[in-house]
Structures are given as C-alpha cells and as structure tokens.
Amino acid sequence: MEEKQCLTFAQSKKLIRKLLGDYRYEHSLNVAKEAVKLARQYGADEEKAQLAGVLHDIMKDTAKQEQLQIFQRFGIILTDLEKSAPKLWHAMAGAAYLEHELGINDAQILSAVRYHTTGRAEMSLLERIVFLSDFISADREYDGVQRLRRLAYENMDKAIVEGLAFTIGELTGEKLPVHPDTFAAYNDIVMQMKVK
Ligand code: DGI
Ligand code: FE
Ligand code: FE
Fold it and tell me: Whose CA is nearest to atom 1 of ligand 1?
C-alpha cells in the first residue's frame, strides 16, 4: 500500500504549537531545521527529516498520567526499567500517538520518533539524523556542543557515539538506569568503527 504521511509540515507545526510549551516548541522547530540540513548533507529525504524533527517531542509536555494512558490504550507494555525512567516515555508515547491518534503510517518517521532518546542498534539514516539533530539543535548549550556540531557534518556516527557516551556518562554519574537500547546503540557504532 502507498505510504501516506497524513500531515504536512505546516499542519505539524500547528499541532505541536498546541501540545507544547514555548521552549519545547522552539526546540522542535530547531530540531526540524537541523534535521533538514543533516538530511541534505547525508542524502536522506529532507521532507521526512523535517517532519520527524518537528514531531519528535510531541508528547514531551504531556502529563505523565496521560502518557501512561496512551501506553494502556494501545497495549504498550513497559519494562521495569522503562517504568522507572519517565524521561523515556515521551519518545514511546509520541510514536504511538502519531500512529494511532494521528494516523501517520510512515514507519520511518514513527521509528525516528520512537528511538530519538535512546537510539538503538542498527539505526536507520533517518533515525540517526533525528537523534543527532536533537543533540546539536540551535538551542543546545552544553560544553562541547560547538565541536559536536562540527563533527556531525564530518562524521555522523562519530558524533552520535560522542553523544551516547556523554548521555551514558551523565546517567551513570547520577546512578540512573541506562536503557538497553542506549547501550546497544553505543556498542553497535563503536564496534563498527573498530572494524573499519
Ligand atoms: O526530549 P529532549 O530533552 O529534547 O531530549 P531526549 O529525548 O534525548 O531526552 C533526554 C533525557 O532522556 C535526558 O534527561 C536523559 C534521558 N535519557 C536518555 N537516555 C536514557 C535516559 N534516561 C535513562 N534513564 N536511560 C537512558 O538510557
Ligand atoms: Fe525528546
Ligand atoms: Fe528533543
């Protein structure tokens, strides 16, 4: 069956304007902009990158209780680790909301939203673009962001692995659980770089 996207960029913007606060709305526009640039650099579909970018945090400002209701409504079972880490929920809830509430059936866009926080092993080009755009968008201000922005356009996988290492370092520093997909993403890229 022909894939249909169901939403234009303009419609997506309007939609997230209602669902997100000012800060998160601006962040989403910045991620969309960065995703288009990365898509151009690495030969991905710029329109899909823009849509996935603008929609990636669609559930970020939604109450935890409502996110849990989304999981329940669509039969999504959380692991114990996921239950204990509410910051991971918006990615899973976002993909489910896009698919089931908005009727978006583009599997590439759905999985780019689904895995934008943790990453996973063998990420697709679109998944990697959204993951990285989220890390280097214009509103990000952490130490080393300039270097990571440069690296993102030179070697996407090196930049992603830097991002993952940073996140894993932060999480372990605070003794927070690291999702298996985060480790899998990290191990996958590191091992591929060693083989090369
Ligand atoms: O939604 P954003 O703030 O734009 O960015 P994001 O979706 O990457 O979320 C980042 C947050 O998610 C940050 O507080 C760290 C957390 N996070 C990322 N990977 C993991 C994680 N938290 C846990 N517990 N485990 C992870 O593997
Ligand atoms: Fe997010
Ligand atoms: Fe984000």
Answer: 57
